[in-house]
């Protein structure tokens, strides 16, 4: 049978007429929307938990980090089931609004997000010129710590007895003779020692906090009683028996510490810049402070 050239274009003309039909357009759009909706529901279904190969590998990696070997198949199944149970409880808690207004959860999320931001920008290794400039600007921070040996008399300061406690200390100070080397019995029991040897500024801050007492130890005269000086515990009279001033340390001796400090500050600066970029996306509305 011979087909004419006019008939050869028949299917094409039919197809063209079909694709131009509004009903066909409507059906095609419906199919696309249905497929997209199915994919969206699958990705956002709160009652659908997908355990991916990456999830299983992370579970195995956590197990290896703790026990030094991969979990046995039965143990791995139990670990995956525990992960699924945890995910279910997490989603149920979210659905019940348990995370809303929970300061502990909020802080945890802040910590995790801050940790992620901290890894965004890694500072380039600093040159020796950069490190020397950093050291020169902060040389006294790298000096060896001064040391003091001292004894003290403690006067507890309870709420409402601040002035009375200080007056007691002044009265004892007036009665201490120049040759008195120690007199802890003239005050109250102290929760730590009464005599200290080679006490550094770090020791002072650790025991007395950021207080007048922690600072005064390194400025008090040697061989005489001084005070009273306040700490978080109460008032103290102090007699320093020996003192050794801190000494500058050469750059070469503290280079590793200088480098660590520089990198730490560079990371903080990079994190601050990154946070500022994120903050610029937000509008903060509230009362002026």
What do you see in this structure?
The protein has helices at 5-8, 10-19, 22-44, 53-67, 73-95, 103-118, 128-137, 162-175, 201-208, 212-216, 251-279, and strands at 147-156, 195-200, 225-230, 234-244. Helices cover 54% and strands 11% of the residues. The chain contains eleven helices and four strands, in the order H-H-H-H-H-H-H-E-H-E-H-H-E-E-H. The protein starts with a helix and ends in a 10-residue tail after the last helix. The protein is an alpha+beta fold and 289 residues long. Helix 7 packs across helix 11 (251-279). Among the domains are: 11-44; 53-118, no CATH class; 144-244, Roll (Chitinase A, domain 3).
Within the CATH hierarchy, at the fold level, what is the topology of the domain at 144-244? Answer: Chitinase A, domain 3
Radius of gyration: 37 Å
Secondary structure category: alpha+beta
The major pleated sheet works out as: 4 strands, antiparallel
Return the CATH class of the domain at 144-244: Alpha Beta
| Beta strands, count | 4
Mean pLDDT: 84
Query: Share of helix among residues?
Result: 40-55%
Alpha carbon gap, first and last residue? 93 Å
Strand order of the largest sheet: 2-1-4-3
Task: Count helical runs.
Answer: 11
Run of helices and strands: HHHHHHHEHEHHEEH
Strand content: 5-15%
Query: Which architecture of the domain at 144-244 per CATH?
Result: Roll
CA-based shape: elongated
Give the low-confidence spans.
1-6
Spell out the key features of this protein.
289 residues, Chitinase A, domain 3, 11% strand, disordered N terminus
């Amino acid at each position: 049978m011979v087909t004419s050239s006019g008939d050869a274009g028949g299917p094409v003309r039919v197809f063209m007429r079909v694709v131009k039909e509004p009903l066909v357009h409507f059906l095609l759009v419906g199919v696309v929307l249905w497929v997209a909706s199915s994919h969206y529901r699958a990705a956002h279904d709160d009652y659908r938990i997908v355990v991916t190969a990456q999830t299983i590998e992370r579970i195995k990696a956590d197990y290896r980090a703790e026990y030094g070997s991969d979990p046995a198949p039965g143990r791995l199944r139990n670990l995956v089931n525990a992960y699924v149970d945890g995910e279910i409880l997490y989603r149920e808690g979210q659905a019940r609004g348990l995370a809303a207004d929970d300061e502990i959860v909020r802080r945890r999320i802040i910590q995790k997000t801050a940790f992620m931001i901290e890894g965004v920008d890694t500072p380039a290794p600093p040159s020796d010129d950069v490190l020397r400039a950093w050291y020169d600007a902060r040389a006294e921070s790298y000096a060896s710590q001064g040391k003091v040996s001292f004894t003290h008399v403690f006067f507890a300061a309870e709420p409402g007895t601040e002035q009375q406690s200080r007056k007691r200390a002044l009265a004892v100070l007036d009665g201490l003779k120049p040759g008195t080397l120690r007199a802890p019995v003239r005050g109250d029991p102290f929760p730590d020692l009464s005599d200290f040897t080679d006490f550094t500024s770090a020791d002072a801050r650790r025991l007395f906090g950021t207080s007048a007492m922690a600072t005064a130890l390194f400025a008090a005269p040697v061989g005489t009683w001084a005070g009273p000086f306040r700490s978080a515990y109460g008032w103290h009279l102090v007699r320093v028996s020996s003192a050794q001033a801190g000494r500058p340390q050469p750059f070469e001796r503290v280079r590793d510490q200088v480098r660590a400090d520089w990198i730490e500050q560079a990371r903080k600066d990079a994190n601050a810049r990154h946070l500022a970029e994120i903050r610029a996306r937000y509008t903060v509305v509230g009362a002026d402070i």
